[in-house]
Amino acid sequence: MVVQGAGSVARGDQPLFWTRAKSSESDGIVVVTAWVFSKPRQLEHYSRSYASSKWDSLISHPKVFNLWFPELAKNLALQVLDELAQELEKRPRPVVFATFSGGYMTCLWKIFQILYSAVGVDGVIKMAYAV
């Protein structure tokens, strides 16, 4: 069973929410960047699949303008990373990134860019969320 909304956040016009496995101890986190114009109900099948494997999902629904305005993609990426960091501080777990269609171009590439700039090639953290 999936518990949606527990720990939900919505900042500005960038919806970002958790879908949690019913189990209190999840085995990991899937960060999902949905396609543009997707609706939460369209991702329920995937959320149920992750939850059945005891994985929580952090789902973001990017806006189409993120494709042309990198600052919007950066804002959403920082929101995702902040939410993920808060969750991992409570209990470290494996994290998997999944993207659908244009989700990569609207958010995921910026998440990777931020992470790459914060952690050097040698794996040493240089600074948090440097852009």
How would you portray this structure in words?
This protein is 35% helix and 24% strand. It is of the alpha/beta class and 131 residues long. Strands 1, 2, 3, 4, 5 and 6 form a six-stranded mixed beta sheet that branches. The longest helix has 21 residues, at 70-90. The protein starts with a strand and ends in a 13-residue tail after the last helix. Mean pLDDT is 77; it is low at 1-14.
Task: Give a quick summary of the entry.
This protein has three helices and six strands, in the order ββββαβαβα.
What oligomeric arrangement do these chains adopt? single chain
Major β-sheet profile: 6 strands, mixed
CATH architecture: 3-Layer(aba) Sandwich
Q: State the total count of DSSP E strands.
A: 6
Structural class category: alpha/beta
Along the chain, the helix and strand elements come as EEEEHEHEH
**How helical, in percent, are the residues?**
25-40%
Shape field:
globular
Distance between the termini: 38 Å
The CATH H-level superfamily is Alpha/Beta hydrolase fold, catalytic domain
| Count of individual helical segments | 3
Mean pLDDT equals 77
CATH class: Alpha Beta
Number of discrete domains: 1
Uncertain runs are 1-14
The percentage of residues in β strands lies in 15-25%
CATH topology: Rossmann fold
Rg over alpha carbons = 14 Å
Question: Which features does this protein show?
Answer:
single chain, 131 residues, alpha/beta, Rossmann fold, 6-stranded mixed β-sheet, 3 helices, disordered N terminus
Q: Mind sketching the topology for me?
A:
Blueprint: E1 2-4, E2 9-11, E3 14-21, E4 28-33, H1 44-52, E5 55-60, H2 70-90, E6 95-99, H3 103-118
Parallel strand pairs: 4-5, 4-6
Antiparallel strand pairs: 1-3, 2-3, 3-5
Helix pairs in contact: 2-3
